[in-house]
Structures are given as structure tokens and as C-alpha cells.
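Retro notes, structure queue

What went well: the backlog is down to a handful. What didn't: a couple of records were mislabeled last round, so from now on we paste the full input next to the output in the thread. Example, using Neuronal membrane glycoprotein M6-a from Cyprinus carpio:
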Amino acid sequence: IICFCLFLQLDLTFHLFVCALAGAGAAVIAMVHYLMVLSANWAYVKDACRMQKYEDIKSKEEQELHDIHSTRSKERLNAYT
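Corresponding output:
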């Protein structure tokens, strides 16, 4: 009877160990997934910031070119009159 109880305790211990190992594996997978999502979001935000700066510079340059073009057009019209 003592041997049978000892066997049941070892069996229960093994099953608890397997459950704990599976839980730890799931936690590791969740942490890796979290880090991947975090790095992807960081890259997206960083790229969006760069893109916003690029769009600002591009619009300023286009505005300057438009101003230069309209100024030259006015100068040409004034030269003919």
C-alpha cells in the first residue's frame, strides 16, 4: 500500500511538472511575441516620424518653387508692359 501511494504521488508530481513546463513555455512564447510586436511598432512609429519630416520638407520645397515660378511669371508680365 505504501508503494502504491508513493507511485501515485510521483505520477501526480510528474503531471504537475509537465503542466508547469508547458506554462513556462507558453509564457516564453508570449514574451517573445510581445517583444516582436513592440519592435515592429517602434519601427513603424520611427518610420512615420521620418516620413512626416520628409513630407514637411517636400511641401516647403514645392511651395518655394511655386513662389519662385509665380514671381518670375509676374516679372515677365511686367517686363512686357
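Agreed that this is the format going forward. Reviewer comment attached to the example: The first helix runs from residue 2 to 80.
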